[in-house]
Amino acid sequence: KVSSAAIPLHRTFVAPHGANVKHRANQAALKPVDKPLPGTLFLIDAKTLARDCLVNAIGAMRNGNISAFDNATDFLACHEGLAGPYVIVYCLRAAQADTKRLQHEIFGLANSVCGIPVVVVSDIDNTAVIDCALRSGAKGFIPSTLSLQVAAQAIKIVEAGGSYVPAESLLASHRATP
């Protein structure tokens, strides 16, 4: 049995290609951390297994650091006001489908950190959720129906200053409105 006090604040993995990955595990010990290296990807996902899998999969496909968080509040506690060449990947699950909460969290991430683009990865491919995410400040939306390679390229597009929403999602939205 492991108590939460025994869990370190940062659990560091070495992902393929030598990417440095940090995981925020202990909420009680959250404090601002040193400014991350340029190009760091911040991954926010409440599901531990899914978060660890994404960290390792994305880490295998990109150079640079990845820092993982359980939720947006923990991320903001450490990095509010951060500016620089970073990207935030925010994972949204069907259980979190409340658009008010999504709007609040994406707006908070997009506006509390200075110009860092937010990409939403979700198992919800619903036009109302996509629209809410984009109107709240997200620069990209990646449904979980896409392949890992496409998702990694979409993150690179957003990181480079672009936006990404799959054509299928836009077409479904267009078909839904007369």
Task: Summarize the structure in words.
The chain has 178 residues and is an alpha/beta fold. Helices cover 38% and strands 19% of the residues. The protein is globular.
Quick description:
Helix content is 38%, strand content 19%. It is α/β, with parallel strands linked by helices and 178 residues long.
Which short descriptors sum up this protein?
178 residues, 7-stranded mixed sheet, 19% strand
Helix content: 25-40%
> What strand line-up does the widest sheet have?
1-2-4-3-5-6-7
Low-confidence stretches: 1-19, 25-30
Cα-to-Cα separation, first versus last residue: 57 Å
How large is the count of helical segments? 6
Beta content comes to 15-25%
Largest sheet geometry: 7 strands, mixed
Specify the structural class: alpha/beta
List the SSEs and their pairings.
Layout: E1 10-14, E2 20-24, E3 41-44, H1 48-61, E4 66-69, H2 72-79, E5 87-92, H3 99-112, E6 118-122, H4 127-135, E7 140-143, H5 148-159, H6 167-176
Parallel strand pairs: 2-4, 3-4, 3-5, 5-6, 6-7
Antiparallel strand pairs: 1-2
